[in-house]
Amino acid sequence: MASAPAQQPTLTVEQTRVVLSEVIQAFAAPENTVRMDEARESACNDMGKMLQLVLPVATQIQQEVIKAYGFNNEGEGVLKFARLVKMYETQDPEIAAMSAKLKSLMLPPLSTPPIGGAIPAS
């Protein structure tokens, strides 16, 4: 007999701020800083490797926090939390700022090519 799908949590704007703050604090914990630094070093600024090595570590760190708020401990829980944050970003500048900070903790800034993309002649 199949069980009914678990009800996903619905957080208010205020609760979302609290959870986001806790997730950001989790990234600052010494053991998680080491985990993220090691993953970044292994990725060597290669975006493909970043997705393979850094993103899973970042997902685990988030999962450790959001599971206490009823999100499942799988990647799906992180995705649902991310959708919830995205929804509130447009309504709440504090959530938008915290979301931007979280993204910066997970992925490095992308360098953009020069406008025009011209290569100087030698």
From TrEMBL:
<protein>
    <recommendedName>
        <fullName>Protein C10</fullName>
    </recommendedName>
</protein>
<dbReference type="GO" id="GO:0009791">
    <property type="term" value="P:post-embryonic development"/>
</dbReference>
<dbReference type="Pfam" id="PF14974">
    <property type="entry name" value="P_C10"/>
</dbReference>
<dbReference type="GO" id="GO:0005737">
    <property type="term" value="C:cytoplasm"/>
</dbReference>
<comment type="similarity">
    <text>Belongs to the UPF0456 family.</text>
</comment>
<dbReference type="InterPro" id="IPR026317">
    <property type="entry name" value="P_C10"/>
</dbReference>
<keyword id="KW-0963">Cytoplasm</keyword>
